[in-house]
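User: Can you predict the 3D structure for this chain?
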Amino acid sequence: MDKAEFYRDARDDRTGPLHGIRVLDVTTTWAGPMCACLLADLGADVIKVELPDGEVSRRLLPLLPNGESFAHASVNRNKRGMSLDLRATRGRELFRRLVADTDVVVENFRPGTLEGWRVGYRDLIDAKPDLIFVSISGWGQFGPDCDRAGYDPLAQAASGFMSLNGTPDGEPVKAPTFLGDDLAGLHAALGALAALLHRNATGEGQHVDVALLDGLLFQSNGYLTLGALDIDCPRLGNEYVFASPANAYRCRDGSVYLGILLDAHWKKLAETIGRPELASEMPSGPQRLQNRERLNEISAAWCADRDVADVMERLVAAGLPAAPIRTYAQTARDAHVLARDMLQTVTAADGSTLPITGPAVKFSRTPTRVRSAAPGLGADDDAILAGLGLSSGDIAQLREAGIVRGRH
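Assistant: Here is the predicted structure, written as structure tokens:
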């Protein structure tokens, strides 16, 4: 389909499908900010509420050319920024006033932290009875381990994910991305949307609890069930227990990943590599699995004396499932990635421009995009506080007291 055809009925008067929904983002680092980022990308008005000295993601390395953290720039786009000390009485009062006109609060502090500041779920529902309060943590709001500190690699380790990640003869390896955080943020955003639908149908709000551990277990492709039944889960590296040949193969100038799951694809591959007799010799998947090592050797030998471009051209022409193994730098320049708007240029607070990862989901009627760069700390304090009825003098007093960030 042509891109213009997909968006032919698009509206330009709404920020996205969540236009009109307000979210207070009281989060830090990645899982919580990711949940709020997804809601912001979908068009919600997300206010990122930080303590006056800023949250952790602003300081995570590496830094971008403009001195901004890659994490903050990536996960806090499309949000407004507010500094507010929720630990102070006046800060709590202002926060409750914000909550009264809010649909969703997202937080990812250790369970009990916001309750200790008296801005937890039970503290806020008298100000907003139908509030949706989303909590993200390492281990959840209840259970024997709920009070433990919980971070992404800990959840990867405890879930079983690390035990299967890596080469068969190597050590357990964590994912190169914040996988546990990302999945928890995704499930939290989905939970917030489901709770919004329930609220709209019944008038009832609720507390939504998402654990990094639970997100990884849910997305474990059934391995938790296999573990419960003591069915062996081998570490296979780049291979699959149910398919062969399926592996990364080295070419002269890089590598490709080839994955043959269907018998019909196997027949085409055998013809493409000039070994048609293999299709009749091993016509079914189980037979190919019994000859995994041999098929890897044959596939590797065919790729070894060819360039990636040549291998890909031949495999794609045959309709076979394959992809070049790229670096992120190579992917950032790929024509298809760019056509899908997965990199969007935004203007940062200092006037510089940054290529920011775009939203994954495309909407034909209510398109989404990176509307604004990540906000400076407290960038929207004046506007948000004025919206609560505070005068410039009131705001100046808050700055003087350290309830909101001072001007710099």
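The mean pLDDT is 96. The first strand starts at residue 22 and ends at 26.
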